[in-house]
Design goal:
By secondary structure, the protein is of the alpha/beta class. It has 6 helices and 8 strands. The strands form 2 sheets. It has a 6-stranded mixed β-sheet with strand order 2-1-5-6-7-8, with helices on both faces. A two-stranded parallel ribbon has the order 3-4. Helix 4 packs parallel to helix 5.
Length: about 240
């Protein structure tokens, strides 16, 4: 089973699933009858892409769950609903994909409010989701937690001064994931950079179609072992420098 922030489950995974990478991940996961997917989004009533998948002829099973990663009360309510729907079953994969990027700010002009909001959505949200879903994760033989990162989180790649708030938040989620792996060696938490993808966040200049990024990501996730825990990967499985 999978939970995607969306969320999935039996073989389950999790992301924000209403558009872009999240929606494409949900679509690809539903191609297998062994997958139950819990796809979370802020507004299920307006998530037309997810609704179309739910009403289509997918092989897997889809549950659409309301969850706002920037709101702790919403996280508690949404994860409680996932646990209720699981009804004691294990959660194999959690994919934390939802996040925000407030734009091309810099170290000497960023908005403190924007930085705080970005950290709340991109770091605190994934941390709380994993915490509240831990009882179901612990029951699984897989125990995979994937936090979506970015190449902009890498100091080693030396990508310059752009997108300061977003970069700080993604570097922080990298450290969160490392700490999760060190605290719980029985789990497999790691981070993935999806690449520069043609989504609303990635913009029209991006080089990857969502299906290209997602197919690579899912191969990495499905084949993950304890050797991957606490590490930083690209969507093709290449390790990225911190």
């Amino acid at each position: 089973m999978v939970v995607f922030n969306w969320f999935l489950t039996g073989n389950v995974k999790a992301f924000s699933a209403s558009r872009g990478i999240g929606l494409e991940t949900t679509r690809q996961l539903l191609q297998s009858s062994s997958n139950t997917v819990f796809a979370t989004c802020r507004s299920p009533s307006t998530a037309s892409g997810l609704s179309a998948l739910a009403s289509g002829s997918s092989a897997g099973k889809l549950h659409i769950v309301q969850l706002d990663v920037a709101d702790e009360a919403s996280i508690k309510k949404g994860t409680s609903e996932v646990l209720r729907l699981l009804d004691g079953a294990a959660l194999d994969y959690v994919i934390n994909n939802a996040g925000i990027n407030r734009g091309a700010d810099f170290a000497f002009n960023f908005s403190p409010t924007d930085l705080a909001d970005t950290i709340t959505s991109n770091v605190v949200g994934p941390a709380l989701i994993a915490r509240h879903l831990l009882p179901a994760i612990e029951k699984s033989s897989r125990k995979v937690i994937v936090n979506m990162s970015s190449g902009l989180a890498s100091i080693g790649k030396n990508l310059g001064p752009k997108s300061t708030s977003y970069s700080i938040s993604k570097t922080a989620v990298n450290m969160l994931t490392y700490k999760q792996a060190r605290e719980r060696p029985d789990l497999i938490p790691f981070v993935i950079d999806p690449g520069w993808v043609k989504t609303k966040m990635g913009g029209p200049g991006a080089i990857l179609e969502p299906h290209q990024s997602v197919s690579g990501i899912l191969k990495v996730i499905i084949n993950a072992t304890s050797a991957n825990a606490g590490k930083f990967y690209g969507y093709m499985g290449n390790e990225i420098p911190w």
